[in-house]
Amino acid sequence: MPAEKPVELTANQCWDYIRKAEIGRLAVVADQHPEIFPINFVVDRGSVVFRTAEGTKLAAALEGAAVAFEVDGYDERLGQAWSVVLKGSAVQLESIEDILASEELPLFPWQSGQKNHFVRIDPVQTSGRSFMVNSAARRHYLRGTRPLPSVE
């Protein structure tokens, strides 16, 4: 039986999946090397906002090079996996209006410490795909040897 081909997601479908995800990954270039950081985030006005502390993630994100943001998941009920990637630029929220508005976002650090820098990823490219997970892989995961993340 031929494998089903991945389905390209529309921009609206991509944003629906982003809104459902709890964790994303921020990809940046730091010291000429790729780095990937897990982040919690919120969707705000057609962009993704996260908060962070001083450090490599913040410096690399704001360096001016393009960044990428990725979320993925698995719907066990449908046996379908998906992945969404945003590519664009990152800007720190600095205007008083943006800072006050960001304080109202439901965005809370998971780690203790000062995470006072709010960063917005403005996407210029949104892409995603979904695909059926083959039955052998589904059986493997259903046996509990390695659970796939669940998407609600």
Roughly what percent helix? 10-25%
The major beta sheet can be summarized as: 8 strands, antiparallel
Written as H for each helix and E for each strand, in order along the chain, the element string is: EHEEEEHEEHEH
| Gap from first CA to last CA | 30 Å
Total domain count: 1
Can you tell me the residue ranges where pLDDT is under 50 for at least 5 consecutive residues? none
Q: Please identify the structural class as seen in this structure.
A: alpha+beta
The level 1 CATH classification is Mainly Beta
CATH fold annotation: Pnp Oxidase, Chain A
What Rg do the Cα atoms give?
17 Å
Q: Mean pLDDT, as a whole number? A: 84
Overall geometry: globular
Number of strands: 8
**How many helices in DSSP terms?**
4
CATH architecture: Roll
CATH superfamily: Electron Transport, Fmn-binding Protein, Chain A
Strand content: 35-45%
InterPro entries: Pyridox_Oxase-rel, Split_barrel_FMN-bd
Protein name: Pyridoxamine 5'-phosphate oxidase family protein
Pfam family, one: Pyridox_ox_2
